[in-house]
Write a structure and sequence with these properties.
single chain; alpha+beta; 7-stranded mixed beta sheet; 5-stranded antiparallel beta sheet; about 25% helix
């Protein structure tokens, strides 16, 4: 275990690596080796980080790359709601630094309108139960990659937007505390309080968006997020619930 930074939440393990391929992969290996968790794995540099759909996530030093390894008691549907807890914790981190946070379904955090963080859930289970879950968080603290031509939001970072420089260990302590608070609320009160807090920060709520699925594109008004965390679009054909998609803003 690594030395815990000031303000570290009690009951959570922490490992800090100088370099790894991916903190999610590191969490998986530790889970398969019997690590009980909860354990945060942070790397000062990761060289094979990834986001949704296997997209590369940057490796610049000074940014935050961390994954929480959990042994969830429920199934995959319940575990998927933890992405909302992680996004809320990241939003609170941005707000504490003086930034304006917004959340883009399903797993991105925006800072002053630019993409500055993402969450990636990966796990394994059988028979409807989860064996382990990795909640990966990548946060641009001091630098960001150039914008791709197809990017829905230009990337940005905390230092560029707020002038605040946070060391990764300090940022993780804030993030871990926020995540633990939301995780406990989810366990005690269900999804409703997380859904309300997430919708209060939702990007483009009530406005037109496009959901890109593997075989179709669905356009409509961003109406809601339902009790299972699905996106609800009001389309010309009526309400449409979408459980996984890439979202673009026209």
């Amino acid at each position: 275990m690594s030395a815990e930074p000031p303000g570290w939440p009690p009951g959570l393990g922490l490992v800090i690596l100088d370099e790894t391929g991916s903190t999610n992969d590191e969490a998986r290996l530790r889970a398969e080796a019997g690590e009980p968790g909860p354990l945060w794995v942070m790397a000062r540099r990761q060289v094979k980080g990834r986001g949704r759909g296997g997209r590369a996530w940057g490796e610049a030093p000074g940014n935050l790359y961390a994954t929480l390894l959990l042994r969830p008691e429920g199934g995959a549907a319940e575990a998927s709601l933890l992405s909302f807890a992680a996004c809320l914790a990241i939003a609170e981190l941005f707000e504490a630094a003086g930034g304006r946070a917004a959340l883009k379904w399903p797993n991105d955090a925006l800072l002053n309108g630019g993409k500055a963080a993402g969450v990636l859930l990966e796990g394994s289970g059988r028979g409807g139960a989860m064996d382990w879950l990795a909640v990966g968080c990548g946060v641009n603290l001091v630098s960001h990659p150039p914008a791709a031509p197809e990017a829905a939001h230009p990337p940005t970072d905390l230092l560029a937007e707020t002038g605040r420089r946070l060391e990764p260990e300090a940022a993780l302590a804030i993030l871990a505390a926020g995540f633990e608070r939301w995780r406990r609320r989810l366990a005690a009160e269900g999804f409703a309080p997380l859904r309300d807090a997430w919708l209060a920060r939702a990007a483009r709520l009530g406005q037109p968006i496009e959901a890109r699925l593997p075989r179709e594109r669905v356009n409509g008004l961003f109406e809601d997020v339902d009790a299972e965390g699905a996106l609800v679009l009001r389309t010309a054909a009526g309400l449409r619930r979408i459980h996984a998609a890439d979202i673009y803003f026209p």
